[in-house]
Design brief:
Radius of gyration: 26 Å
Distance between the termini: 68 Å
Strand order of the largest sheet: 1-3-2-4-5
Helix content: 40-55%
C-alpha cells in the first residue's frame, strides 16, 4: 500500500487555525468542525477518489451536517480518537461531506445505505470503491459494540479484511447495488415532452382517507420519531379550501396536527421557531436543531391555515401568534448582515440552522439552552410562580431530556389565568435563557431554502399585515439575485449556485430543488409586491431549470456535477419524486410550472406540470406521507388555473382588491399586480396585457379561468362573490 500522505500532501490547513487535515480551507461549518480531527479527511471530489485509486484502498465516506447531534457524538467518540484515526488513515481515504451543500451526494448514498442496512440517518457511514460505487454502509457506529450494532473499529476491520481477501465479492456487491439504485430510478422516470394525462380528483380524496388512517392520536402521522409533515399539511389545507366530500376531513386533520405541534415542545414557546423533530410521539421531547427549511415551510403552512379560517379546535388567531413569532425568530436568529441600501443590521439572507447541541464548559450538551428544572424556575420566578409554570409547562422533578431538565410546553391551549401567568413570566424566562450559552449557527446560505423563506415571509407579511416581513423577503430575494444568480448569455441559460458563504457563491450549481424553490419564492413575492423584477427573475429560473434538468425531455434532479455520483447510481441521472425534509424538487417544479402557466398562458408549461403529476396515481393512496407536495401541486392544478389581474392606480381601492385576493385560500389562484412603482410593465406579464383600469381611471380586478375573464370587479364585495362562484 502507498503510505498515507503527510500534512503537506493532504492540502493546506492554514485557513483554519488548528486544522490537521484538508478541511481547514473549506467554507462549510460542518467540514471545519472536523478540521482538527487526527483523521486525514478530504473534501468530496475527484482528487480524493483518484488518491484512493492510486493507493488501492476503499473510500470511507462520512456524511452529516453542522446541527446534527449524533454527528457530534461520533466525531468525539471515534474521529477524535488517535488509534481509530491511525487505522482509518492507514487503510482508507477518508472523505467528509456536508449533506446540505451536496444533497446530490447525500441522496444517492442514502439510497445505498437504506438498501444495505435497512436504516438511514446521519451521520451516514459509507464504504466506496475508488470509482464511487458503494459496497457497505450504515449510520452511527459506537466506539464499543452494542446489542445489534458493531463498534466502528469492528466495522473498519471487517471492511479492510473483505477488501484484501474478497475483492471480487466486494466489487460484485457494488455493481449489484448500483444497478438496483438505477432500476429504482427508472421506476420514477418521467418525460416532460409527452402528452399530459388527466388528473383524477378522486386520487386526492383517497390520499385524505389514507392520511386519516395513519393519524396519531397525539397529532401528526405515524409513530416516533415524528417530523413536522409540512408538505402533507400544505396539501390538506389546499384540499380543505375546495368543496368536496373529503374537504372537512382534510381541514380537521390539518388542524389537529397544527395545534399539537404549536402547543408542544417541538415549538419554542419562548422565542418561536420549530425544532427538527420529536423523539416522542406526543411531541414532548424534541431533537433540538432548528433548521431554516423546516421553519420556512411551517411559517407558510400556518399562514395558509390563517387564510383558510382555522377551526374551533385551532383558531386562526392562535396560528397567527405562532406564525408571527416564527417569522421573528427566523429573522433574528438566522438573519445574516444587511445590504441593498439597508443599514447593515437588517438581514439580507438567512443562515441554515442552529445546532442541536450547546457547548457548556467545553462539552456538547444536547438542547442545553432550552431546558429547565423546577428549581431553576422557582429561583427565577419565585416559589409560587415557579411552581405554577412548572406544572403548566410540564417541567417535572424527573427530567425528560437530561439532568439539565425538560423543555417548556403546555400541551394544550392556554386560557384564563394560565394565559395571564404565561404573558407575565415569558419575558423573564426569555431574558434568562438569552444569558445562557447559545447553540452554534451554520452561516452558509442555501439558495433553495432561502427561496422557501422568501415565499413564507412575503405571504406572512401580506396576511398578518406586517410589511416589514415583505421587506425582509425582498432583501433575501435581492441577495439571491446578486450573489447566487448569473444571468444567461445568448442561448446559454442562467446559472444558480446552491451555496454561498460570507457573500460569495461557491461550489456546485443549484439542484432542481434550488431553482424550483427560488422560483416559487419569487412568484409569491411578485404576487405580494407587483414588482416585475421578481417576476422576470422567476421566469428566468424556470427557463434555466428546463434547460438544465430536462434538456432531453427527461426530468432529473441534478445536472451531473460528479462522476462518482453518476457511477453510484448505475450511470444514470435520476429523479426522486418523494418529499424528504423539503419538498421533492420535481414536485416543487410542477407547482412552479403551474404558476408560470397561469401568468403566461403557456400550455407547454401546464403540460410539463401534468407529466410530473402523472407520478401521483400509485402514491396517492399507498404513500401520501412522502408525496405531500405532489398532492398539493395536483390540488392546485385541479382548482386552477384561476388567474387574477389587479390594475389601476395605487389607491386604497386597489390595495383592498389586492388584499382580498391575497387572503383567499383558493389553491389554484395566481395573482398579477400592476407594478406599483409606476414603471411600465412593457407587457412582460402576459396576464396583465389588455387589462386596463376602469373608464374613470379607478382600480379594478379581473378574475379569469384559463385567461377567459369575468367582468372586472371594482369592489371587494363583487370580487368576493366572483371568488366564491369560481372556487374549485
Amino acid at each position: 500500500m502507498t503510505p498515507d500522505p503527510g500534512p503537506a500532501e493532504r492540502g493546506s490547513s492554514e485557513a483554519w487555525p488548528g486544522a490537521s487535515n484538508a478541511l481547514g480551507g473549506e467554507p462549510s461549518a460542518y467540514l471545519r468542525q472536523h478540521a482538527g480531527n487526527p483523521v486525514h479527511w478530504r473534501p468530496f471530489g475527484d482528487e480524493a477518489f483518484a488518491f484512493a485509486a492510486a493507493r488501492d484502498v476503499p473510500v470511507f465516506l462520512s456524511i452529516g451536517y453542522a446541527a446534527c447531534h449524533w454527528c457530534h457524538v461520533m466525531a468525539h467518540e471515534s474521529f477524535e480518537d488517535q488509534d481509530t484515526a491511525d487505522f482509518l488513515n492507514a487503510n482508507f481515504v477518508a472523505v467528509k461531506v456536508d449533506r446540505e451543500e451536496r444533497p446530490d451526494v447525500d441522496a444517492v448514498y442514502m439510497a445505498a445505505t437504506q438498501a444495505i442496512s435497512g436504516e438511514g440517518g446521519w451521520p451516514m457511514s459509507v464504504f466506496l470503491l475508488p470509482d464511487g460505487r458503494a459496497f457497505h454502509a450504515g449510520t452511527y457506529y459506537p466506539p464499543r459494540p452494542m446489542p445489534g450494532r458493531p463498534s466502528f473499529r469492528q466495522v473498519l476491520g471487517a471492511v479492510r479484511e473483505a477488501w484484501l481477501e474478497r475483492r471480487s465479492a466486494v466489487e460484485a456487491n457494488a455493481d449489484a447495488l448500483a444497478r438496483g439504485i438505477a432500476a429504482a430510478q427508472d421506476g420514477t422516470a418521467v418525460r416532460l415532452d409527452a402528452p399530459a394525462p388527466d388528473l383524477d380528483p378522486e386520487l386526492l380524496s383517497e390520499a385524505v382517507r389514507a392520511l386519516a388512517r395513519s393519524e396519531d392520536a397525539a397529532g401528526g402521522f405515524g409513530a416516533a420519531p415524528k417530523f413536522p409533515p409540512s408538505a402533507v399539511l400544505e396539501f390538506l389545507i389546499r384540499h380543505a379550501a375546495v368543496p368536496s366530500a373529503s374537504a372537512e376531513a382534510a381541514r380537521d386533520l390539518a388542524g389537529r396536527t397544527l395545534a399539537a405541534m404549536a402547543r408542544s415542545a417541538l415549538f419554542d414557546q419562548l422565542d418561536g421557531g420549530f425544532a427538527r423533530y420529536s423523539v416522542t410521539r406526543d411531541w414532548s421531547v424534541p431533537h433540538f436543531e432548528k433548521m431554516l427549511y423546516d421553519n420556512a415551510q411551517l411559517l407558510r403552512v400556518y399562514v395558509h391555515w390563517i387564510r383558510l379560517g382555522g377551526t374551533a379546535g385551532y383558531p386562526a388567531g392562535d396560528a397567527a401568534a405562532v406564525a408571527g413569532s416564527t417569522a421573528d425568530w427566523m429573522l433574528a436568529s438566522l438573519g445574516l448582515g444587511g445590504t441593498e441600501g439597508q443599514d447593515g443590521t437588517a438581514p439580507a439572507a438567512l443562515a441554515s440552522s442552529l445546532d442541536a447541541d450547546t457547548v457548556v464548559d467545553g462539552v456538547h450538551a444536547e438542547g442545553a439552552s432550552y431546558l429547565w428544572t423546577p428549581a431553576e424556575l422557582a429561583a427565577l420566578l419565585g416559589p409560587a410562580d415557579g411552581a405554577a409554570v412548572a406544572r403548566l409547562m410540564h417541567v417535572h422533578p424527573t427530567a425528560t431530556v437530561s439532568e439539565a431538565g425538560s423543555p417548556l410546553h403546555p400541551g394544550r391551549a392556554l386560557d384564563g389565568p394560565d394565559t395571564g401567568l404565561w404573558q407575565r413570566v415569558r419575558p423573564v424566562l426569555r431574558g434568562a435563557r438569552a444569558a445562557r450559552p447559545q447553540p452554534a449557527r451554520d452561516d452558509k446560505v442555501v439558495a433553495g431554502w432561502n427561496g422557501l423563506a422568501v415565499a413564507a415571509l412575503a405571504e406572512a407579511g401580506a396576511v398578518l399585515d406586517r410589511p416589514e416581513l415583505v421587506d425582509a423577503a425582498e432583501r433575501i430575494a435581492g441577495y439571491l439575485e446578486r450573489v447566487h444568480w448569473t444571468p444567461g448569455q445568448g442561448a446559454e441559460p442562467g446559472r444558480l449556485v446552491r451555496v454561498s458563504h460570507d457573500g460569495t457563491a461557491r461550489g456546485i450549481g443549484g439542484l432542481l430543488e434550488d431553482y424550483a424553490f427560488c422560483a416559487e419564492g419569487l412568484f409569491a413575492l411578485y404576487a405580494v409586491t407587483g414588482r416585475t423584477r421578481w417576476y422576470d427573475l422567476a421566469e428566468a429560473l424556470v427557463a434555466a431549470a428546463g434547460s438544465r434538468f430536462a434538456a432531453d425531455g427527461m426530468l432529473r434532479d441534478t445536472a451531473g456535477e460528479s462522476p462518482q455520483v453518476f457511477n453510484a447510481q448505475g450511470r444514470r441521472a435520476g429523479m426522486d419524486p418523494f418529499d424528504n425534509a423539503t419538498p421533492s424538487g420535481a414536485a416543487a417544479f410542477a407547482g412552479v410550472l403551474l404558476t408560470a402557466s397561469a401568468l403566461t398562458g403557456s400550455a407547454e408549461h401546464r403540460a410539463m406540470a401534468g407529466n410530473i403529476l402523472s407520478l401521483l396515481p400509485p402514491l396517492a393512496a399507498r404513500a401520501p406521507r412522502v408525496a405531500g407536495w405532489l398532492l398539493a401541486a395536483a390540488q392546485a392544478a385541479l382548482a386552477g388555473p384561476l388567474e387574477a389581474a389587479v390594475v389601476g392606480p395605487d389607491t386604497p381601492q386597489r390595495t383592498a382588491l389586492h388584499r382580498t385576493l391575497l387572503q383567499s385560500p383558493s389553491p389554484g389562484l395566481v395573482i398579477a399586480l400592476q407594478d406599483p412603482s409606476g414603471e411600465s410593465d412593457d407587457g412582460r406579464v402576459p396576464l396583465l396585457r389588455g387589462r386596463e383600469a376602469a373608464p374613470d381611471g379607478a382600480a379594478q380586478a379581473y378574475l379569469c379561468r384559463g385567461m377567459v375573464c369575468q367582468l372586472p370587479a371594482r369592489s371587494v364585495e363583487a370580487l368576493r362573490e366572483q371568488l366564491a362562484s369560481m372556487a374549485g
